[in-house]
Amino acid sequence: MLLTADPLWQLTAACADDMRPERLDLIVGVYRDDSGASPVMRAVRAAELRLAQRSPSKAYAGPSGNPRFAALLTDLLLAGADLSSRTVAVQSVAGTGALRLLAELLATTGPDRTVHLGTPSYVNHAGILAAAGLRVATHPVQDMLAAVETARPGDALVIQGCCHNPSGFSMPIRQWDLLSAALVRRGVVPFIDQAYFGLGDGLDADLAGMRRLLRAVPFGVVAVSGSKAWGLYSERVGAALVVGELPGARGLLEGIARTSYSQPPAHGAMIVEEILGDPELTACWRSELEAMRRRLGRLRTGLASRLGDMPGLPEQRGMFLSLPLTAGAMERLRVEHGIYGLPSGRINLAGLPESRIPEVADAIRQVV
Ligand SMILES: Cc1ncc(COP(=O)(O)O)c(C=O)c1O
Fold first, then answer.
1. Fold of 7-41+292-367
2. Is the CB of 121 under 6 A from ligand 1?
């Protein structure tokens, strides 16, 4: 029994306690294989074996964490010396930690700044921004451009880099370009959250829009989560990137880290460093990530084709599927069918075994 006051984890605990054989956990965004296990990637295992043999030091690494990991991750994400050379990157405590570091950086460097957040969004976004002392203004997520037009210079806009949580929306390039132009014209700072790269349309396709935007704007920040792409959820791998003009960015980020957790955990970052520093392991990781992406695509089209009258499902991307169901319908799915998703209608596709698509589609039809 998981002891927690957090509603998301309470739901997870209720699911774990549900003894019905048909019980299905589609709650938290963790990749699972067809047997329901959250697998350790082969590239990760190989990197861990190498690390175990070398037994690298456990000495303190400093508030910026592992510099080679941060440099390799920056090169992967930004793909080009023009962007990497004007980026300051520090290792963070996963994507959440990067969001918090960058939120505090934006609060410190812009005390009058408002951060504009499209809703619905990742459930933790508003809380992280508010905890950093930022003023948060929300707008319907599809009205992002309009929000930029009414923002004040120096404000920031939260943008999910791809596979938006929860809507599954990946912005087409044309929309990234329109957004870049508006951000530059209005002097608004992009605050990009990259959590699901590689799980939408492919690694480079998922990052292309962000790279174009960062080339166009004078300054932007990126919170990177290593949790999903490497399946390293509990290792807390991530990085905070500051791209462009912000004098003293590293000192500011290190100051924030120093007074909250001092330094990030080493093991997960060493695994990613080992993989990205070795072409063979990188190729292995890329092909495993691609296999995960393809499986999510098959699950999405399989379920969507059985729910043919629900529009927009096949166009969604990433680990989740956002079903147009009410909280009441989601409760019926849980109570009557043992299928656990979020009250918002979001389900974790990766938790759905392919053989159970017909049964889950029937259950969804019954509760609509
Ligand atoms: C959009 C988004 N950003 C950030 C995160 C945080 O990820 P992490 O586990 O790396 O802290 C998540 C996790 O679900 C997410 O969905």
1. Aspartate Aminotransferase, domain 1 (3.90.1150)
2. no
